[in-house]
Amino acid sequence: MITRGFFSGRRPPSDTDARIPPGQYLEQGFPVLSAGPTPRVRTEDWSFTLKHGPKPIKKWNWAEFNALPQSKMTRDIHCVTAWTKFNTPWQGVMIDDILADAGIEPPTAYTLALSFDGYSTNVPTKDLVTGKAMVALLYEGKPITPDHGGPARLLVPHLYFWKSAKWVNGLQFTERDEPGFWELRGYHMYGDPWREQRYSSDR
To answer: Whole-angstrom Cα distance, residue 153 to residue 166?
Structure first.
């Protein structure tokens, strides 16, 4: 005899469930969220600067940057506004290859990503290296559109997507963990979606 309701409990997690962090839902589209107007950055005006504090280490123009080794990365991404999108395909330059071209090892444990519109966000340096992050130049094999951060955006897929700065134009190594745009407005300093680190009060 089977007790009534025996099979009505919570179903076991599926493979899909296992890929969605707590508090998130699966999104089929690609929502566009920005803090301000979308800058239109022409590739002939684009540059990327690596800095240690205020001091520039190396600067690339669009052609020089595109000549660096290109890598592909397909990852799930997670927005702090609660959507998750599976299998997003990107192509660009790994942070490891940027550092190699500059001929340096990371000089500090902390980094600020900088953007053309004045946006910034902090990411621990260890979360950018050893194959974890890239400056993306293509999405789905095509140039990244301005509303999604083109012509180039940072991609740090294991953190909430506000850390993947749109319209990126540089990385600045800092001596301490300095908050960026959203972190100064109450968002979490790290932003791990699997720990629901949305706001500064989250553990």
So the answer is: 4
For 5-54, what is each residue's pLDDT tens digit?
444 455 556 788 899 999 999 999 999 988 789 999 999 999 999 999 99
Query: Rounded to an integer, what distance in angstroms lies between the CA atom of residue 121 and that of residue 47?
Result: 18
Question: Which distant-in-sequence residues (6+ apart) come within 8 Å of 185 by Cβ?
Answer: none
DSSP characters over 23-36: T-EE-SS-----SS
Residue 27, C-beta contacts closer than 8 angstroms, at least 6 positions apart: 79, 83, 84, 85
Burial profile 13-22: b = 16 or more Cβ within 10 angstroms, e = fewer: eeeeeeebee
* DSSP β-bridge partners for residue 87: none
Asked if the model's pLDDT at residue 109 lies above 60, the reply is yes
The CA-based dihedral angle spanning residues 190, 129, 115, 39, taken in that order and rounded to the nearest 10 degrees = -100
DSSP 8-state symbol, 65: H
DSSP-based three-state secondary structure for 197? coil
* 116, two tokens: 């053309």
pTM for this predicted structure? 0.92
d(CA 74, CA 27): 16
Which residues make beta-bridge pairs with 50?
58, 171
Residue 73 pLDDT > 90, yes or no?
Answer: yes
CB 84 within 8 A of CB 77: yes
